[in-house]
């Protein structure tokens, strides 16, 4: 499932790097953050191989780095699975960010399956690392949790419910 940690770059990838194609500062900052937190990639790898009888055989699939980077990109840009796949497939900088480079980008359902294999403990570790770096940079004090809510009225009981969820990032 996740045999290659770093895919081999093609001549086209090397040429584009030589020509100066760079990521925007936000995505570059995220990559720097992920480089400093290699344990997160290892946690994702463990989640991806969890429950597999022979994790070193079969097709390669999405590697741990690609999984985590794609998940973060999807959350930061607020895209659904189909749009994530289309945007990565269309743009060289997003291919670079997600580590796909000139490889074939998987279909949207492959992203869904990979993200669903991540455990709550792994997602909590990602969130904790993000909060810690935000506190260190002075962007947040880490004392309040942002919660988005919406009110929905049902037809049967005319009762108002509040639905809440927390953002990954």
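^ Assign residues to that structure.
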């Amino acid at each position: 499932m996740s045999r290659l940690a770093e895919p081999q770059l093609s001549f086209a990838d090397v040429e584009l790097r030589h020509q100066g194609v760079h990521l925007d500062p936000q995505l570059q900052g995220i990559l720097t953050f992920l480089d400093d937190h290699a344990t997160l990639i290892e946690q994702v790898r463990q989640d991806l191989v969890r429950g597999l009888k022979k994790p070193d055989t079969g097709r390669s699939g999405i590697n741990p780095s690609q999984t985590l980077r794609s998940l973060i990109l999807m959350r930061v840009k607020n895209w659904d699975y189909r749009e994530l796949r289309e945007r990565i497939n269309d743009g060289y900088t997003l291919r670079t960010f997600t580590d796909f480079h000139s490889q074939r980008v998987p279909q949207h359902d492959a992203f869904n399956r990979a993200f669903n294999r991540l455990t709550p403990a792994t997602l909590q570790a990602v969130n904790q690392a993000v909060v810690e770096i935000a506190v260190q940079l002075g962007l947040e004090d880490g004392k309040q949790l942002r919660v988005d809510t919406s009110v929905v009225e049902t037809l049967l009981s005319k009762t108002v419910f509040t639905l809440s969820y927390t953002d990954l990032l």
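Helices lie at 11-18, 25-36, 38-49, 64-77, 81-90, 92-97, 108-116, 120-136.
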